[in-house]
Design brief:
6 strands, alpha/beta, Rossmann fold, 16% strand
Length: 180
Amino acid sequence: MNVLGISGSLRQGSYNSMALRAAQKLAPQGMKLDIADISRIPMYNDDVRAAGEPAEVAALKAQIRAADAVLLVTPEYNFSIPGVLKNTLDWMSRPPEPPFDGKVVGIMGASPGPVGTARVQYDLRKVLVFMNSFTVNKPEVFISLAQTKFNAQGELTDEPTGKFITDLLVAMQNLKKRVG
């Protein structure tokens, strides 16, 4: 199973990008997880889309289409979706051939706070319903107090968090088998 991971943070030392790299290492047998770069996706403008999809947008759409599933790993900004991720999803929701249509999607997030991205995950689920994707409902992976779960090299050191991530990846595999 080929999974495309997307971090909702562009920050160099992002806990979410660390969690995404941890998921890459924890991928169960038979799963390959590649990581997409959304830093070059331009601000959504329907006039630009109508004139011709930017190359970066077309390339990401192709990556998503080629994947069996997508793993979104995101922080929570102001109780909701970071602008860079929402902008990317807005581009991905537009014709031609929106690539999230019928796609299996897993969601997780890391935060230095105690809530661990619960609100952003709720908002992402609403967006993904519109995009007609199949979102894994359980397990929910909220990595709270993230600064205590990664070492200075950005490696996950918290075993229970690793198990939650692995369980999510397995749930993505199982959902893919169910929906085809």
